[in-house]
Amino acid sequence: MKRIKRNSLVTGLYALMLMGIVTGCDKDVYNPGNDDDGKLPPKEDYFDFALTGDVQLNVNYDAPGYRAVIEVYDQNPMEDRRTKKEGISPVFVAYTDINGKYEGKMNIPTAVKEAYLYTSLFGLPTCVKLEASASGYTYDATKSAPGTRAAAASGVLNDKVPFEVAVMTTNNKRSDNMYSLTTWNGNGIPTLDGYLTRPDKVGAANEAIGVVSTRVDNFLVAYNNDEANKVGGACGNAKLLRNPDQINLKIPAGGSTVSVSFMGEAAAFLNSFGYYYYPTGQTITPESFYKMKKYLIFPNSSGGDEQSAMTLRTGQTAKLLYFDKDGNQSELFPEGYTIGWFLISNGFGGSSFNAPYASGYVNQLDDFGYSSSSYYSGYRNACMSDDTGTDRRFISVYDEKSKMRIIGIEDYVKSSQAPDDYKDLLFAVTTSKDLGGGDLEPVPPTDPTPEPGVLPLSGTLAFEDIWPGGGDYDLNDVMIEYNRNITFDANNKATKSVETFKAVQKKGSATNNNFFACQYKKLGKMTLPAGVKAETATNSFVIETSAKEIVEGTVYQIERDLTGLNLSQTDVASDFNPYIITKKYTTENRVEVHLPLADMTSAADASLMTKDNAYYVGSKDGSQYPFAINIPITGFVAADETSRIDLEGQYPAFASWAKSKGTTNQDWYKTGKGAK
Q1: Domain membership flag for residue 36
Q2: Which of 99, 195, 528, 554 counts the highest number of beta carbons within 10 A?
Q3: Smallest Cα–Cα separation from 84: which of 249, 284, 224, 178?
Q4: 26-40, 58-72, 577-591, 607-621, range with the lowest pLDDT
């Protein structure tokens, strides 16, 4: 990705790390003499040696009612559509607003070439690859990838509904009384004009669909909750399995309209979903089910993610139709009928259906699940009770606030214990006549409180302590690994920061007594461990023991209560000015070494900075080199003592990176001595 353009020498895009290090709370904690007074060259003449930088992130799920925690990764974080990889950390975390939107900066490694957007919030695409451009990274659900959406099929009229659909099986092709309320394109997206609507508000409480979906999903057990799903325990969502009379809709006196709203899916298959209806009281057998007319609602009931094109969006709603014996259609279902549901596992075959020019089809009629029967006696979920037996794929709850029935379906029933969540398709049913919840499990009307988010930041700080006189540029005199976990609320306001600093420099790396410290613009209320002191005059903490004397692997944990400071998690992330005090610890006229272009504190001796060592950048063989650097990984292998970091056998790509002002070899720290 081409990032926001640098000026001649300094990356404007990466200014956050530098700008975040400028001023104290209510006092000037920096020495005014550190400003450009005409004796020093302008900062713009220097490369900042930053290995992270600000890029714009724009996310639009176009999802009213959804406030999602989003995570950005520098690799695909998914093992498959349902399983996240272990041992990887996001480079950025934030909450969207209540409509699934986020716009802001994220500070990420400059070596990142592609980025993936992940959220665990049900109803939104789990993982998508972000679109990269010169302006940053973007995901916009309102814009489709090429070929994922089609215009309404020409020549298709409502009086052609229902469209006959062929069913493809392994050995033959046959009709089996399958119809569809819509045509569809190659991705299974309905193409009939006006077929899908997306109401702004739903249910008795007049809420956005995302609010209902989040409340219901919070009530259900997660797929990966093995403890909740185990036999002998609560058996997860299997406890919500119901008999056909409870799942199917009995039309009340006077008739009723029926609509189905897509709430989300967590399926590995591309499932086809539809309905059927029959006289109330009629017994449905496998044989009679095959003979009765069945109507597709969603040819492909997928929400879309990195591995499949966007199809359905949460809240999209289809109105069901009733056809009398003469084929006349009506939106009003008459009294005396019951509506059932079916799902064809992996039924969508990836072909378009644009009647009247072609015949549509779905796959694998042999893998049907329907709500009127305990079908396929050879299969049994171990969590099911003994009363009704086998292949029960349908759960249902009643959302008390919206007064909507929510139905979940499992697309593949296993013969042994398995963490089935029955959310391979989740949809809401809306009727013009309130049918009530019957004896369905009620979802409490209280909306869940959003869980705090955590932005994890980690890296390695490497310092050269011979400043201002020059150094050997092995950058190993003081080495500190840090992990900064910034907790924030649903409004992205930081509430806490827990920061650990681990000494990793080898014994004998430095001859000076160097003291590690870190300055913040806003400290908050700090909790410090033994051996660490607060330096209020500079808004810093200082480790009182010399780095030379600290045992390798020693960890210091700093906790900061940030409540009430009105800082975003990105504000706290950028507010980070680590440095060392060389030779001896003093509170005035001391020698400090900071990251390039960062300001020294008010306790430093500003007179030491000259044009030859300005802004903690020195010269070596005609090239600029830093006296400190922030490397965005832990486990960095230090250069050998007295060996310049760019030498062969160390990190030779460092030289090209420095010479190019950061435009090439941005991952130099992964390709040298420490390559894994």
Answers
A1: no
A2: 195
A3: 224
A4: 26-40
